Amino acid sequence: MPAGSSSKRERQYEHIKGSAEDRGESSKRAKEIAARTVNKERVRSGESKTAGKASLRDPKSASQRGGQRSHSGAEGPTKDQLYEEAKKRNIHGRSSMTKKQLKNALDH
């Protein structure tokens, strides 16, 4: 958790991490899921100074969405999620790629 997080966010982080571990995620992946979810909630409620565009644009909070986009659905991750991953991996030409092209680029 980021320094200066509220006790509410600390509890939220622990709850999400525990739930992810109960679903069979590794400890490392559970921590990542919890941190990303809590940080997104912090952005949406104005508790953070910086924000990614996907965090601000999503009309539903993670708790409202209830895991609808947990990468296990029929369509998998959204185009924005694929784009952000491509950005992290520094994939050239990502800004003009379609969702299918981003998925293919990330699979290689």
Describe, in plain words, how this protein is organized in 3D.
The chain contains six helices and no strands. The protein is mostly helical and 108 residues long. It has two domains: 1-56, no CATH class; 74-108, no CATH class.
Q: What topology emerges from the helices and strands here?
A:
Elements (H helix, E strand, L loop, with lengths): L6 H16 L4 H18 L8 H5 L4 H4 L13 H10 L10 H9 L1
User: What is the number of independent domains?
Assistant: 2
Q: Helix coverage percent of residues?
A: 55-70%
- Discrete helix count: 6
Largest sheet: none
- Which secondary-structure class do the elements indicate? mainly alpha
Characterize the quaternary organization of these chains. Answer: single chain
Rg (C-alpha, Å) = 15 Å
